[in-house]
Amino acid sequence: xxxxxxxxxxxxxxxxxxxxxxxxxxxxxxxxxxxxxxxxxxxxxxxxxxxxxxxxxxxxxxxxxxxxxxxxxxxxxxxxxxxxxxxxxxxxxxxxxxxxxxxxxxxxxxxxxxxxxxxxx
Length: 121
Prior knowledge:
The chain has 121 residues and is an alpha+beta fold. The chain contains four helices and five strands. Helix content is 37%, strand content 22%.
């Protein structure tokens, strides 16, 4: 029993600064989105102006968003990830990211709490 206690104690000391969240699917997608250059489609740029979404919010959603795998299309390339983001200072919204080999593209935005009447084509 003393050996088990010593082993657990050594494991905690050696691995206490590591996190398991990097192995989870949500974090892996966000890491890949954050590591690649991000382009914004004309449609999404129009929606950003209409919905008052700032570029800093795009950086935040790429780091701290919640990937909605049930709404995403991950079985055919290019992958389409729907990422939700809710911050205290702005509206809750979701972004549709198309994942390419060397970059990601924001295709569109949608507000979660309300419907926006943007006339973007």
